[in-house]
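Researcher: Let's try something more involved. This one mixes different molecule types, so please make sure each is placed in the same coordinate frame as the others.
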Amino acid sequence: MKRWIVLSLAGVVALGLASQLPGCTASRGGSGAAAAQKVYVKPGEHDTYYAFLSGGHHGNVYVYGMPSCRHITTIPVFTPEPAVGYGVDEESKVMLGGFSWGDAHHPGLSETDGDYDGRWLFINDMPNARIARIDLKDFKTRQIFGPIPNLSAAHACPFPTPNTEYVFAASRFSAPVPNRYVKVEDYAKEFRGIIAGVKVDPKDGTMSMGFEILMPPFNWDLADAGKGPSHGWEFFTCYNSEMGFDSLEVKASQAEMDFVAAVDWRAAQKAVDEGKAKMISGVPVLDPQQVKGIAYLIPVPKSPHGVDVNPSGEYICASGKLQADVSVYSYAKMKAAIDGGKFDGDRMGVPVLKYEDVLEATVPVGLGPLHTQFDDKGNAYTSLFLDSQIAKWKVGPPWQVVDKIDVYYSIGHLMASEGDTRHPTGEYVVALDKLSKDRYLNVGPTHPEAAQLIDLRGPKMELLYDFPTYLEPHYAQMIKAEKLKPITVYPMVENHKPGAIRTAEEARIERKGNRVDVYGLVVRTHFTPDIVRVNEGDDVYFHWTNLEQDDDIAHGFGILWSSCNMQVEPGETKTMRWKAARPGITPFYCSNFCSALHQEMQGYIEVSPRGTPVAAVQRPAPEKTAEVAALLKTE
Ligand code: K7E
Ligand code: CUA
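Model: All components are placed in one shared frame. Result:
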């Protein structure tokens, strides 16, 4: 979001500054000891919520505990993470697909019946149009789907449906579909937007391609799933319905109205199943010029950003970032207009509904409304970027703001506790601020991002706590901690990795031509084998199995003078490739503290000059395997 702010400010800067000034002179928030008590989690005790914050262009997910706001861990997703060997071991390297960055904006917890079920966390990589699935059983990235063909930048993504039937992606930028050489000036004629529905396997969460819909070449921005009565629909905002292709900061703000697209995803999937799609780049693509009844456009004033469906599923709230209102649309009115065929023309085959026919209310929230979240008492909370405030308003007549709170500064998304579900808990909201300015110790020109915990339980919102985050959370979600039961060791009985071994007797080094496979064990505090003999030029694949079944006993495997380091967790088998580039001795060691004799956990790779005879199979000496057997017993 940061990008458009700088540019789009021009038009509203006068208004914005005027309204920000009072905010700056107001109290800096927080109410001392009483507030401190509400975030204090005693040493040794646990938080009541997990919060998952997207890592932005850091490409990963930050895990925080709420209400203490403690950073618990970081889950590597789209970016290599050398400490654990993510993107270094063979499996995760393949999953990263040759990319070394991602720009992760929107975490999306899996849902059952419209509530978070604690199974998976999906997150988008906008620029490379990918979606990752993190398994919340072990907090590991298990699938990266994409780059999704035909789609340029998945920003409106993933926003799961109420039973995680689908996750979605819509193109932030438009491009020719299929991509080919055209003149940029032919934008309106040759470029297209894409809305993609990615299917999720209900058993194991595996993503696969469902359908794509050709949309007009607008900039598709954000999304939310319908629920309750609106289950079966997904809503997407867009800007640049002017179809500008340069100087968007001016050209994309000309029209009074942009749109929310309403997509009937069941109808889209049915059309694909009936063979109404044509294949483009291997994906079934539906063209609304030919296939009717899959997508509609609802006019929204002034370049909307967020779109959010309220917990009952009756209302769709969209905020024009260059206006001072939230536009609330009624799902029932939308359905009636569609069923009655009341359209105001179409844009490239997508019927346009009439604003007045679908609008339920406009709520005068303040300047720069971006995103809306909800509580359990029928209130909505809208972030106001320009005002640096959150506005609390009643969902329903008289559609009025009931409270406001200052935030520091320039809020983007906000995250309410279970705020995207049918049953938000109404305890907290976290402001995800884009600018931290002077809130923390100065660390030079790159300021940390800022987040602020706000209590929703009283009649007035109360600022409890500030916490800095590393670059750059956009969106976040908060789930009750009791819903997650992560494992702490991988049961050895479930380890079916091809490289896995279970006893020291199975440890061996096998050579076929230039390829050497080392099947080894790591266990406190020994590598078996700890002497590895190879030839210059060999490709060495180390398959280490950590036989431990105790909590928190991960071993590391780091090789000197290389980029090779990884962590092997209890019960896990991981494979890493190392090239024996030149003759000599190369030590390796356990890089992860594991016990009193951690420092002794080491070994040597002996690389003999090319052509030196080396046995086809090497096994540790019997007395060595006996030693290891003894180690295993003493555990
Ligand atoms: Cu508003 Cu990418 Cu959802 Cu930035 S986005 S804040
Ligand atoms: Cu094993 Cu340190």
